[in-house]
Protein backbone atom coordinates (compact mmCIF):
# COMPACT_ATOMS: atom_id res chain seq x y z
CA UNK A 1 0.00 0.00 0.00
CA UNK A 2 1.46 3.36 -1.08
CA UNK A 3 -0.85 5.62 0.86
CA UNK A 4 -0.06 9.29 1.01
CA UNK A 5 -0.34 10.79 4.46
CA UNK A 6 -2.19 14.10 4.47
CA UNK A 7 -3.16 16.42 7.23
CA UNK A 8 -6.94 16.68 7.35
CA UNK A 9 -6.54 20.23 8.72
CA UNK A 10 -7.55 22.79 6.10
CA UNK A 11 -8.89 20.11 3.73
CA UNK A 12 -12.28 20.89 2.25
CA UNK A 13 -14.51 17.89 2.81
CA UNK A 14 -18.00 17.08 1.53
CA UNK A 15 -19.97 14.97 3.98
CA UNK A 16 -22.68 13.27 1.93
CA UNK A 17 -25.47 12.23 4.31
CA UNK A 18 -24.15 14.66 6.94
CA UNK A 19 -27.55 15.00 8.65
CA UNK A 20 -27.62 11.33 9.65
CA UNK A 21 -26.60 9.30 12.71
CA UNK A 22 -22.97 8.81 11.58
CA UNK A 23 -22.74 11.83 9.27
CA UNK A 24 -23.64 14.55 11.77
CA UNK A 25 -21.03 13.69 14.44
CA UNK A 26 -18.46 13.12 11.68
CA UNK A 27 -19.17 16.60 10.28
CA UNK A 28 -18.68 18.17 13.70
CA UNK A 29 -15.51 16.20 14.40
CA UNK A 30 -13.90 17.07 11.06
CA UNK A 31 -14.90 20.71 11.47
CA UNK A 32 -13.32 20.68 14.93
CA UNK A 33 -10.03 19.42 13.47
CA UNK A 34 -9.94 22.45 11.16
CA UNK A 35 -11.46 21.01 7.99
CA UNK A 36 -13.86 23.06 5.91
CA UNK A 37 -17.01 20.92 6.01
CA UNK A 38 -19.79 21.04 3.43
CA UNK A 39 -22.80 18.84 4.22
CA UNK A 40 -24.85 17.47 1.32
CA UNK A 41 -28.07 15.72 2.34
CA UNK A 42 -31.61 15.46 0.94
CA UNK A 43 -33.10 15.03 4.46
CA UNK A 44 -34.68 11.74 3.33
CA UNK A 45 -34.00 10.19 6.74
CA UNK A 46 -36.25 12.83 8.35
CA UNK A 47 -38.94 12.02 5.76
CA UNK A 48 -38.66 8.30 6.53
CA UNK A 49 -39.34 9.16 10.18
CA UNK A 50 -42.55 10.83 9.00
CA UNK A 51 -43.45 7.80 6.90
CA UNK A 52 -42.86 5.37 9.77
CA UNK A 53 -44.40 7.75 12.34
CA UNK A 54 -41.33 7.07 14.45
CA UNK A 55 -38.66 9.49 15.54
CA UNK A 56 -35.31 9.58 17.22
CA UNK A 57 -35.51 9.23 21.01
CA UNK A 58 -33.37 12.34 21.24
CA UNK A 59 -34.87 15.52 19.77
CA UNK A 60 -33.15 16.39 16.49
CA UNK A 61 -33.02 20.07 15.64
CA UNK A 62 -33.51 21.50 12.13
CA UNK A 63 -30.30 21.70 10.12
CA UNK A 64 -30.10 25.52 10.31
CA UNK A 65 -30.35 25.39 14.14
CA UNK A 66 -27.67 22.67 14.30
CA UNK A 67 -25.30 24.74 12.17
CA UNK A 68 -25.97 27.98 14.08
CA UNK A 69 -25.41 26.22 17.41
CA UNK A 70 -22.07 24.86 16.14
CA UNK A 71 -20.98 28.33 15.04
CA UNK A 72 -22.06 29.80 18.39
CA UNK A 73 -20.18 27.17 20.41
CA UNK A 74 -16.98 26.92 18.36
CA UNK A 75 -16.83 29.84 15.92
CA UNK A 76 -16.57 27.29 13.11
CA UNK A 77 -18.68 27.29 9.94
CA UNK A 78 -20.34 24.28 8.36
CA UNK A 79 -22.35 24.81 5.17
CA UNK A 80 -25.33 22.74 4.02
CA UNK A 81 -26.77 21.96 0.58
CA UNK A 82 -30.03 20.07 0.23
CA UNK A 83 -29.40 17.88 -2.81
CA UNK A 84 -30.60 14.37 -3.63
CA UNK A 85 -27.38 12.85 -4.95
CA UNK A 86 -29.25 9.86 -6.43
CA UNK A 87 -31.64 12.08 -8.39
CA UNK A 88 -30.11 15.49 -8.93
CA UNK A 89 -26.82 14.77 -10.65
CA UNK A 90 -26.44 18.19 -12.29
CA UNK A 91 -26.81 20.16 -9.06
CA UNK A 92 -24.37 17.84 -7.34
CA UNK A 93 -21.80 18.10 -10.13
CA UNK A 94 -22.10 21.89 -10.15
CA UNK A 95 -21.50 21.98 -6.39
CA UNK A 96 -18.34 19.90 -6.82
CA UNK A 97 -17.09 22.21 -9.56
CA UNK A 98 -17.85 25.32 -7.46
CA UNK A 99 -16.45 24.05 -4.16
CA UNK A 100 -13.57 21.84 -5.37
CA UNK A 101 -13.41 19.52 -2.34
CA UNK A 102 -10.25 17.56 -1.47
CA UNK A 103 -12.27 14.61 -0.20
CA UNK A 104 -15.82 13.30 0.20
CA UNK A 105 -17.16 11.05 2.93
CA UNK A 106 -20.16 9.15 1.55
CA UNK A 107 -22.83 8.12 4.08
CA UNK A 108 -25.80 9.02 1.85
CA UNK A 109 -27.64 5.72 1.50
CA UNK A 110 -30.76 4.07 2.91
CA UNK A 111 -29.09 2.07 5.65
CA UNK A 112 -31.72 -0.05 7.38
CA UNK A 113 -31.93 -3.77 6.51
CA UNK A 114 -35.50 -4.15 7.92
CA UNK A 115 -36.70 -1.02 6.06
CA UNK A 116 -35.22 -2.42 2.84
CA UNK A 117 -37.29 -5.62 3.31
CA UNK A 118 -40.67 -4.06 4.22
CA UNK A 119 -42.30 -4.26 0.77
CA UNK A 120 -41.45 -4.30 -2.94
CA UNK A 121 -41.59 -0.50 -2.88
CA UNK A 122 -39.00 -0.35 -0.08
CA UNK A 123 -36.75 -2.86 -1.84
CA UNK A 124 -36.87 -0.85 -5.06
CA UNK A 125 -36.34 2.47 -3.28
CA UNK A 126 -33.28 1.12 -1.46
CA UNK A 127 -31.71 -0.22 -4.66
CA UNK A 128 -32.54 2.89 -6.72
CA UNK A 129 -31.35 5.28 -4.04
CA UNK A 130 -28.18 3.52 -2.93
CA UNK A 131 -26.82 2.36 -6.25
CA UNK A 132 -27.63 5.61 -8.05
CA UNK A 133 -26.21 7.67 -5.19
CA UNK A 134 -22.89 5.80 -5.25
CA UNK A 135 -22.69 5.73 -9.01
CA UNK A 136 -23.50 9.44 -9.31
CA UNK A 137 -20.75 10.27 -6.81
CA UNK A 138 -18.18 8.30 -8.84
CA UNK A 139 -19.36 9.63 -12.18
CA UNK A 140 -19.41 13.24 -10.92
CA UNK A 141 -15.87 12.99 -9.53
CA UNK A 142 -14.65 11.81 -12.94
CA UNK A 143 -16.66 14.47 -14.81
CA UNK A 144 -15.36 17.24 -12.52
CA UNK A 145 -11.77 16.33 -13.45
CA UNK A 146 -10.73 16.97 -9.85
CA UNK A 147 -8.54 14.70 -7.72
CA UNK A 148 -10.95 13.87 -4.87
CA UNK A 149 -10.41 11.10 -2.32
CA UNK A 150 -13.69 9.24 -1.75
CA UNK A 151 -14.23 7.59 1.65
CA UNK A 152 -17.32 5.38 1.64
CA UNK A 153 -19.11 3.79 4.56
CA UNK A 154 -19.67 0.16 3.70
CA UNK A 155 -20.64 -2.64 6.04
CA UNK A 156 -19.26 -5.83 7.58
CA UNK A 157 -22.63 -7.38 6.71
CA UNK A 158 -21.75 -7.69 3.00
CA UNK A 159 -19.99 -10.94 3.93
CA UNK A 160 -22.97 -12.57 5.57
CA UNK A 161 -22.03 -14.11 8.83
CA UNK A 162 -21.27 -17.72 7.97
CA UNK A 163 -17.50 -17.45 7.60
CA UNK A 164 -16.83 -20.98 8.90
CA UNK A 165 -14.30 -19.82 11.46
CA UNK A 166 -12.17 -18.02 8.87
CA UNK A 167 -10.90 -14.56 9.75
CA UNK A 168 -12.42 -11.95 7.41
CA UNK A 169 -9.50 -10.17 5.76
CA UNK A 170 -9.55 -6.49 4.83
CA UNK A 171 -11.41 -6.70 1.54
CA UNK A 172 -9.27 -9.02 -0.57
CA UNK A 173 -8.64 -12.75 -0.70
CA UNK A 174 -5.69 -14.57 -2.25
CA UNK A 175 -6.90 -17.53 -4.29
CA UNK A 176 -5.28 -19.92 -6.73
CA UNK A 177 -7.06 -21.10 -9.87
CA UNK A 178 -5.93 -24.14 -11.84
CA UNK A 179 -6.17 -23.93 -15.65
CA UNK A 180 -7.18 -26.90 -17.82
CA UNK A 181 -3.46 -27.46 -18.49
CA UNK A 182 -2.86 -27.75 -14.76
CA UNK A 183 -1.07 -24.41 -14.34
CA UNK A 184 -1.79 -22.85 -10.97
CA UNK A 185 -2.37 -19.10 -11.18
CA UNK A 186 -2.51 -16.98 -8.02
CA UNK A 187 -5.08 -14.20 -8.01
CA UNK A 188 -6.32 -11.59 -5.62
CA UNK A 189 -10.10 -11.17 -5.64
CA UNK A 190 -12.62 -9.17 -3.64
CA UNK A 191 -13.60 -11.26 -0.62
CA UNK A 192 -16.85 -12.90 -1.77
CA UNK A 193 -20.03 -11.30 -0.52
CA UNK A 194 -23.10 -13.04 0.81
CA UNK A 195 -25.56 -10.26 1.66
CA UNK A 196 -28.44 -10.95 4.04
CA UNK A 197 -30.87 -8.19 2.98
CA UNK A 198 -31.61 -5.96 0.00
CA UNK A 199 -29.81 -3.17 1.86
CA UNK A 200 -26.68 -5.31 2.31
CA UNK A 201 -26.94 -6.33 -1.35
CA UNK A 202 -26.66 -2.67 -2.41
CA UNK A 203 -23.50 -2.39 -0.34
CA UNK A 204 -22.07 -5.46 -2.08
CA UNK A 205 -22.85 -3.83 -5.41
CA UNK A 206 -21.12 -0.61 -4.31
CA UNK A 207 -17.87 -2.56 -4.07
CA UNK A 208 -17.95 -3.42 -7.78
CA UNK A 209 -18.63 0.20 -8.70
CA UNK A 210 -15.58 1.23 -6.69
CA UNK A 211 -13.38 -1.45 -8.21
CA UNK A 212 -14.41 -0.43 -11.72
CA UNK A 213 -13.91 3.34 -11.33
CA UNK A 214 -10.60 2.75 -9.57
CA UNK A 215 -9.41 0.55 -12.43
CA UNK A 216 -10.80 2.68 -15.27
CA UNK A 217 -10.37 6.24 -13.98
CA UNK A 218 -7.77 5.77 -11.22
CA UNK A 219 -10.16 7.21 -8.64
CA UNK A 220 -8.74 7.17 -5.13
CA UNK A 221 -11.24 5.31 -2.95
CA UNK A 222 -11.34 4.00 0.61
CA UNK A 223 -14.21 1.66 1.51
CA UNK A 224 -14.75 1.23 5.25
CA UNK A 225 -16.59 -1.96 6.17
CA UNK A 226 -18.17 -0.84 9.38
CA UNK A 227 -19.79 -2.96 12.07
CA UNK A 228 -22.96 -2.01 14.01
CA UNK A 229 -22.62 1.44 15.52
CA UNK A 230 -23.74 2.01 19.11
CA UNK A 231 -23.83 5.02 21.42
CA UNK A 232 -25.20 8.43 20.58
CA UNK A 233 -22.94 11.22 21.76
CA UNK A 234 -19.42 12.22 20.79
CA UNK A 235 -17.18 14.88 22.32
CA UNK A 236 -18.63 17.44 19.89
CA UNK A 237 -22.34 16.54 20.06
CA UNK A 238 -22.16 16.88 23.85
CA UNK A 239 -21.25 20.56 23.58
CA UNK A 240 -24.87 21.73 23.32
CA UNK A 241 -28.35 20.15 23.40
CA UNK A 242 -29.01 21.50 19.90
CA UNK A 243 -26.07 19.42 18.59
CA UNK A 244 -27.42 16.13 19.96
CA UNK A 245 -27.18 13.08 17.70
CA UNK A 246 -29.95 10.70 16.60
CA UNK A 247 -30.93 7.77 18.86
CA UNK A 248 -33.04 5.40 16.76
CA UNK A 249 -34.91 2.70 18.66
CA UNK A 250 -37.80 1.70 16.38
CA UNK A 251 -38.07 -1.77 14.83
CA UNK A 252 -36.66 -0.62 11.48
CA UNK A 253 -33.85 1.81 12.27
CA UNK A 254 -32.86 1.05 15.87
CA UNK A 255 -29.63 -0.95 15.90
CA UNK A 256 -29.42 -3.79 18.35
CA UNK A 257 -27.33 -2.54 21.28
CA UNK A 258 -28.93 0.91 21.35
CA UNK A 259 -32.34 -0.79 21.20
CA UNK A 260 -31.45 -3.01 24.16
CA UNK A 261 -30.22 -0.05 26.22
CA UNK A 262 -33.36 1.94 25.38
CA UNK A 263 -35.65 -1.01 26.08
CA UNK A 264 -34.10 -1.47 29.53
CA UNK A 265 -34.47 2.26 30.21
CA UNK A 266 -38.22 2.28 29.39
CA UNK A 267 -38.92 -1.06 31.05
CA UNK A 268 -39.68 -3.00 27.85
CA UNK A 269 -38.57 -6.64 27.51
CA UNK A 270 -35.21 -6.86 25.70
CA UNK A 271 -36.02 -8.31 22.26
CA UNK A 272 -33.52 -11.03 21.30
CA UNK A 273 -34.29 -12.36 17.81
CA UNK A 274 -34.35 -16.17 17.74
CA UNK A 275 -31.69 -17.86 19.86
CA UNK A 276 -29.50 -14.75 20.10
CA UNK A 277 -26.59 -16.87 18.89
CA UNK A 278 -25.82 -14.35 16.13
CA UNK A 279 -22.35 -12.82 16.52
CA UNK A 280 -21.88 -9.31 15.15
CA UNK A 281 -19.15 -6.66 14.93
CA UNK A 282 -19.57 -3.41 16.90
CA UNK A 283 -18.08 0.05 17.05
CA UNK A 284 -18.89 3.08 19.22
CA UNK A 285 -19.91 6.27 17.38
CA UNK A 286 -16.89 8.12 18.83
CA UNK A 287 -14.60 5.59 17.13
CA UNK A 288 -16.57 5.88 13.87
CA UNK A 289 -15.62 9.55 13.63
CA UNK A 290 -11.99 8.88 14.63
CA UNK A 291 -11.63 6.10 12.05
CA UNK A 292 -12.93 8.42 9.33
CA UNK A 293 -10.39 11.05 10.33
CA UNK A 294 -7.65 8.38 10.09
CA UNK A 295 -8.91 7.18 6.70
CA UNK A 296 -8.88 10.75 5.36
CA UNK A 297 -5.29 11.20 6.53
CA UNK A 298 -4.11 8.02 4.79
CA UNK A 299 -5.51 8.36 1.32
CA UNK A 300 -4.54 5.98 -1.49
CA UNK A 301 -2.15 7.07 -4.22
CA UNK A 302 -3.54 7.06 -7.80
CA UNK A 303 -1.83 3.73 -8.57
CA UNK A 304 -3.35 2.01 -5.52
CA UNK A 305 -6.28 -0.38 -5.66
CA UNK A 306 -9.35 0.48 -3.57
CA UNK A 307 -8.39 0.51 0.10
CA UNK A 308 -10.82 -1.67 2.06
CA UNK A 309 -10.64 -1.66 5.84
CA UNK A 310 -12.75 -3.32 8.49
CA UNK A 311 -14.06 -0.65 10.83
CA UNK A 312 -15.09 -2.37 14.04
CA UNK A 313 -13.57 -2.74 17.45
CA UNK A 314 -15.08 -5.93 18.92
CA UNK A 315 -17.51 -8.77 18.28
CA UNK A 316 -20.32 -9.96 20.55
CA UNK A 317 -23.10 -12.52 20.61
CA UNK A 318 -26.53 -10.88 20.71
CA UNK A 319 -27.75 -12.90 23.69
CA UNK A 320 -24.63 -11.98 25.69
CA UNK A 321 -25.33 -8.30 25.04
CA UNK A 322 -28.96 -8.74 26.11
CA UNK A 323 -27.95 -10.31 29.41
CA UNK A 324 -25.22 -7.73 29.98
CA UNK A 325 -27.74 -4.90 29.52
CA UNK A 326 -30.35 -6.67 31.68
CA UNK A 327 -27.82 -6.95 34.52
CA UNK A 328 -26.58 -3.41 34.14
CA UNK A 329 -29.82 -1.52 33.66
CA UNK A 330 -32.43 -3.99 34.88
CA UNK A 331 -35.08 -5.61 32.73
CA UNK A 332 -36.21 -8.94 31.33
CA UNK A 333 -34.84 -10.67 28.26
CA UNK A 334 -37.52 -11.85 25.79
CA UNK A 335 -36.57 -14.39 23.10
CA UNK A 336 -38.87 -13.46 20.19
CA UNK A 337 -39.45 -15.07 16.78
CA UNK A 338 -36.71 -13.92 14.44
CA UNK A 339 -38.33 -11.69 11.79
CA UNK A 340 -35.19 -11.99 9.62
CA UNK A 341 -33.69 -14.77 7.52
CA UNK A 342 -30.26 -15.20 9.08
CA UNK A 343 -28.16 -17.97 10.62
CA UNK A 344 -29.33 -18.72 14.16
CA UNK A 345 -25.75 -19.10 15.39
CA UNK A 346 -22.44 -17.95 13.92
CA UNK A 347 -18.86 -17.22 14.81
CA UNK A 348 -17.15 -14.09 13.55
CA UNK A 349 -13.43 -13.34 13.34
CA UNK A 350 -12.35 -10.10 11.76
CA UNK A 351 -8.97 -8.66 10.77
CA UNK A 352 -8.62 -5.02 11.79
CA UNK A 353 -4.98 -4.23 11.15
CA UNK A 354 -5.27 -0.81 9.56
CA UNK A 355 -6.90 1.15 12.34
CA UNK A 356 -4.92 -0.56 15.07
CA UNK A 357 -1.69 0.13 13.16
CA UNK A 358 -2.73 3.77 12.84
CA UNK A 359 -3.00 4.05 16.60
CA UNK A 360 -6.74 3.89 17.05
CA UNK A 361 -7.03 3.17 20.74
CA UNK A 362 -10.40 1.46 20.46
CA UNK A 363 -13.32 2.08 22.75
CA UNK A 364 -14.72 -1.25 23.85
CA UNK A 365 -17.95 -2.03 25.69
CA UNK A 366 -17.57 -0.93 29.25
CA UNK A 367 -20.05 -0.27 31.98
CA UNK A 368 -19.31 3.47 32.06
CA UNK A 369 -20.18 3.98 28.41
CA UNK A 370 -23.15 1.64 28.52
CA UNK A 371 -24.44 3.61 31.50
CA UNK A 372 -23.89 6.88 29.64
CA UNK A 373 -26.12 5.67 26.80
CA UNK A 374 -28.68 4.38 29.32
CA UNK A 375 -28.74 7.82 30.96
CA UNK A 376 -29.45 9.46 27.59
CA UNK A 377 -32.24 6.93 27.04
CA UNK A 378 -33.65 7.60 30.54
CA UNK A 379 -33.47 11.36 30.04
CA UNK A 380 -35.61 11.15 26.90
CA UNK A 381 -37.77 8.15 27.93
CA UNK A 382 -40.83 10.44 27.92
CA UNK A 383 -40.46 10.77 24.13
CA UNK A 384 -40.50 6.99 23.59
CA UNK A 385 -43.40 5.45 21.67
CA UNK A 386 -43.38 1.82 22.82
CA UNK A 387 -45.67 0.81 19.95
CA UNK A 388 -42.76 1.49 17.58
CA UNK A 389 -40.34 -0.90 19.32
CA UNK A 390 -41.38 -4.28 17.82
CA UNK A 391 -39.55 -5.29 14.65
CA UNK A 392 -42.43 -5.83 12.21
CA UNK A 393 -40.55 -6.10 8.92
CA UNK A 394 -40.18 -9.77 7.95
CA UNK A 395 -37.93 -11.24 5.27
CA UNK A 396 -40.64 -13.65 4.00
CA UNK A 397 -44.42 -13.82 4.38
CA UNK A 398 -44.09 -17.00 6.45
CA UNK A 399 -42.10 -15.30 9.20
CA UNK A 400 -43.48 -13.83 12.42
CA UNK A 401 -42.67 -10.28 13.57
CA UNK A 402 -40.34 -9.96 16.57
CA UNK A 403 -43.01 -9.13 19.16
CA UNK A 404 -42.45 -10.19 22.78
CA UNK A 405 -45.10 -12.55 24.21
CA UNK A 406 -46.74 -11.37 27.46
CA UNK A 407 -44.41 -12.26 30.35
P1 LIG B 1 -28.71 7.59 8.46
O1 LIG B 1 -29.91 7.10 7.73
O2 LIG B 1 -28.88 8.13 9.84
O3 LIG B 1 -27.98 8.72 7.57
C1 LIG B 1 -27.92 8.69 6.17
C2 LIG B 1 -28.08 10.11 5.67
O4 LIG B 1 -28.00 10.12 4.24
C3 LIG B 1 -29.44 10.71 6.04
O5 LIG B 1 -29.29 11.97 6.64
C4 LIG B 1 -30.20 10.78 4.71
O6 LIG B 1 -31.10 11.88 4.67
C5 LIG B 1 -29.04 10.93 3.72
N1 LIG B 1 -29.35 10.41 2.37
C6 LIG B 1 -29.84 9.19 2.02
N2 LIG B 1 -29.99 9.10 0.70
C7 LIG B 1 -29.59 10.29 0.18
C8 LIG B 1 -29.53 10.82 -1.13
N3 LIG B 1 -29.96 10.13 -2.19
N4 LIG B 1 -29.07 12.09 -1.30
C9 LIG B 1 -28.65 12.83 -0.24
N5 LIG B 1 -28.70 12.38 1.03
C10 LIG B 1 -29.17 11.13 1.24
O7 LIG B 1 -27.64 6.41 8.44
P2 LIG B 1 -26.30 6.23 9.31
O8 LIG B 1 -26.59 5.31 10.43
O9 LIG B 1 -25.70 7.55 9.58
O10 LIG B 1 -25.41 5.44 8.28
C11 LIG B 1 -24.59 6.15 7.35
C12 LIG B 1 -23.83 5.16 6.48
O11 LIG B 1 -23.03 4.34 7.30
C13 LIG B 1 -24.75 4.26 5.67
O12 LIG B 1 -24.31 4.20 4.35
C14 LIG B 1 -24.62 2.91 6.33
O13 LIG B 1 -24.66 1.91 5.37
C15 LIG B 1 -23.26 2.97 6.99
N6 LIG B 1 -23.22 2.18 8.22
C16 LIG B 1 -24.04 2.49 9.29
C17 LIG B 1 -24.00 1.70 10.44
C18 LIG B 1 -24.88 1.95 11.64
O14 LIG B 1 -24.89 1.11 12.56
N7 LIG B 1 -25.62 3.04 11.69
C19 LIG B 1 -23.13 0.60 10.50
C20 LIG B 1 -22.33 0.30 9.38
C21 LIG B 1 -22.38 1.11 8.25
N1 LIG C 1 -31.47 -8.03 16.64
C1 LIG C 1 -32.05 -8.57 17.76
N2 LIG C 1 -32.96 -7.81 18.41
C2 LIG C 1 -33.32 -6.56 18.02
C3 LIG C 1 -32.71 -6.01 16.89
C4 LIG C 1 -31.77 -6.77 16.21
O1 LIG C 1 -31.76 -9.69 18.17
O2 LIG C 1 -34.18 -5.95 18.68
C5 LIG C 1 -30.46 -8.82 15.92
C6 LIG C 1 -30.73 -8.96 14.43
O3 LIG C 1 -31.61 -10.04 14.16
C7 LIG C 1 -29.33 -9.14 13.89
C8 LIG C 1 -28.46 -8.31 14.82
O4 LIG C 1 -29.23 -8.12 16.00
O5 LIG C 1 -28.93 -10.47 14.03
C9 LIG C 1 -28.04 -6.97 14.28
O6 LIG C 1 -29.18 -6.21 13.90
P1 LIG C 1 -29.08 -4.62 13.72
O7 LIG C 1 -30.41 -4.11 13.32
O8 LIG C 1 -28.43 -4.03 14.91
O9 LIG C 1 -27.99 -4.48 12.56
P2 LIG C 1 -28.08 -4.66 10.99
O10 LIG C 1 -29.44 -4.97 10.51
O11 LIG C 1 -27.01 -5.62 10.63
O12 LIG C 1 -27.73 -3.23 10.43
C10 LIG C 1 -26.94 -2.26 11.13
C11 LIG C 1 -27.09 -0.93 10.42
C12 LIG C 1 -26.55 -1.05 9.00
C13 LIG C 1 -25.12 -1.54 9.05
C14 LIG C 1 -25.01 -2.84 9.82
C15 LIG C 1 -23.57 -3.23 10.08
O13 LIG C 1 -28.46 -0.54 10.39
O14 LIG C 1 -26.59 0.22 8.36
O15 LIG C 1 -24.63 -1.74 7.75
O16 LIG C 1 -25.58 -2.66 11.15
S1 LIG C 1 -23.38 -4.96 9.92
O17 LIG C 1 -24.29 -5.61 10.84
O18 LIG C 1 -22.02 -5.28 10.23
O19 LIG C 1 -23.76 -5.29 8.57
UniProtKB/TrEMBL annotation:
Pfam short name (any one): Epimerase
Domain NAD-dependent epimerase/dehydratase: 13-303
Region (Disordered), start-end ranges: 382-407
Ranges of Polar residues composition bias in the record: 390-399
InterPro entries in the record: Epimerase_deHydtase, NAD(P)-bd_dom_sf
Superkingdom per UniProt: Bacteria
Family: Belongs to the NAD(P)-dependent epimerase/dehydratase family.
Protein's name according to its UniProt entry: NAD-dependent epimerase/dehydratase family protein
Amino acid sequence: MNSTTKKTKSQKIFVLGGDGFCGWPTSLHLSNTGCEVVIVDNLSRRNIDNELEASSLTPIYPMSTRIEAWKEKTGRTITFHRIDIAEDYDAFLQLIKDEKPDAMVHFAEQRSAPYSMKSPRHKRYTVDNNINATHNVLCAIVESGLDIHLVHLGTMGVYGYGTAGMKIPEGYLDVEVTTEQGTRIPQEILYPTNPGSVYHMTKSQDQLLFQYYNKNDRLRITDLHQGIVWGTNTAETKLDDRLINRFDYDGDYGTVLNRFLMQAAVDYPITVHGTGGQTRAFIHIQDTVRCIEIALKHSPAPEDKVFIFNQMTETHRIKDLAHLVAELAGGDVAYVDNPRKEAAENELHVTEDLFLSKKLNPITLNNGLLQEVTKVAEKYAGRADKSKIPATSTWTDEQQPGIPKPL
